[in-house]
Description:
The chain is of the alpha/beta class. It has 16 helices and 13 strands. Helix 10 (231-241) links the parallel strand 9 (220-225) and strand 10. It is globular.
Amino acid sequence: MTKQTIMLCAGGTGGHVFPALSLAKDLLSRDCNVVFLTDERAIKYVRDKYDDMTVCVIPSSTIPAGLMSKIKGIALLGRGYLKSRQLINKYKPRLVIGFGGYPSLPPMVAAQQKDIITIIHEQNAILGKANAYLAPKADRIALSLPDLSSLDETDAMRAVVTGNPVRSEIADLYSHPYNAPDEGEPFNLFVMGGSLGAKIMAKYVPEALSQLPENLRVRINVVQQCHKEDIPAMQDAYVKAGISSTLKPFFDNVPEILKKTHLVIARSGASTVAELSVAGVPAIYIPYPHHADQQQKVNAESISTHGGAWVMEEKNLSAESLSAKLAELMQSPQTLFQAADAARSNAKPEATRKLGNLAIALVKGWDK
């Protein structure tokens, strides 16, 4: 029996790539050929981990402000479109699935022009620009959250709520118990920076932890993602405060870290929220404030309204307010335990399987 080829395309940030890679692993287990199109930023996530998948880097760009920048961005997207057409002609996918980000645009547009079946998957509560552009011609619109407010009536009829696929190593944590630390026990704090958060975390978190009473500071083990240039100053601040710390620009063992984590401080990108919820780890979310649609705030509130997290908006954030919240939580293991349970209760650990089922049903012609 001939294997079906399914093409996945995604922007190169973790928020777009991780759901795509989760689905890729599922589809490979179903004996599909998988071709993954992305930009060069994603190579660090894929390298040496997906030998059975074909990975192709395509030219891409945002369309920034300024006439010359716009021309350059459009030219790069044009090159990506031509490259995508070549790859589609070469691999002949039965289905193309886009996970958002500008690199998903060229292959998805090319696929739709060739009348190939397409699915867009939206990680956030509100459709991003690329997915909003592609939605009218997509055969299915897979949503992470049951919010149809960003879809018109026609598009909403083709929407399916699958949840946001998370890495299998994270999904495995769904059944891992959360152990709230009693008073006097070590307190493991994980600070996730990411591309939109490392600087703000470096600014506020060390100072907030340094302001805690000594009996709380000595309990803390902080693992923090940060920019390389910020590490010396942060390390010095933690040493002076008597706080144990591990600081790196990138952690490739996040599942192992989360097993031991009692609280996370992070931005609230869709993949971060989905993964922490599946792992059952309570979080303080500091949403990225500069999206016009406030998508990260909406993501965070989808968990905080059920008691699984706390939202601290950047416009109101200070080292003092963050320190006060940390002190409150460190002294209330019951609150942390209940938040962990609430986060897990609102998770969708079956999202990868559901999206994989949708893909196969379309390929087989079973979903009309």
